[in-house]
Write a structure and sequence with these properties.
alpha+beta; 6-stranded mixed beta sheet; 19% helix; 25% strand
């Protein structure tokens, strides 16, 4: 009889222990989200580019999408001095719209408007009133009413 399954107490070679360890880390990484699933590194995007109303109608729940629209507002949270108690801030964001318009503080969003969170470095080169094609990642959080989850800006490119 061939002993293909190691018996308890049988020692594995260093090479086999390393392979088992790497396989275990890989499986745990995929299960717990420590590493990207196959295809995630390729930057797959949903069909697009969408306009804002189309994106809101389809309401994707995960992944990355391309959306084209006009920047209607850019908001950067003000700095809070050390030791001061400041009002909470929603976060640095922009409002993307299907229509070329400008929103002021306190203006309501229209049916063709969406809020995209972003780092300041990504927001600084953008200008209100200009049209952009944006790659957006759908987050797991939801700050506003359904149907859309929060979206984060990945990259922006001027559109015609």
């Amino acid at each position: 009889m061939v002993d293909s399954v190691p018996c308890p107490g049988r020692r594995f070679s260093r090479r086999h222990r390393r392979r088992i360890w790497i396989a275990t880390l890989g499986v745990c990484g995929l299960l717990f989200g420590w590493v990207a699933a196959p295809g995630a590194a390729e930057g797959r995007t949903a069909s697009g580019p969408h306009d804002v109303a189309d994106l809101l109608a389809k309401a994707p729940q995960t992944g990355r999408v391309n959306v084209t629209g006009f920047v209607a507002r850019i908001f950067l949270c003000p700095a809070c001095p050390a030791g001061a108690t400041c009002k909470p801030c929603l976060g640095d964001h922009l409002v993307l719209s299907d229509a070329k318009r400008s929103l002021g503080p306190g203006d309501d969003l229209g049916p063709g408007d969406v809020v995209l969170f972003a780092d300041r470095a990504l927001l600084r080169p953008l200008r209100v009133g200009r049209r952009y094609r944006l790659e957006v990642e759908i987050r797991d959080t939801q700050s506003a009413a359904p149907p859309m989850k929060d979206m984060a800006l990945v990259k922006a490119k001027a559109a015609r």
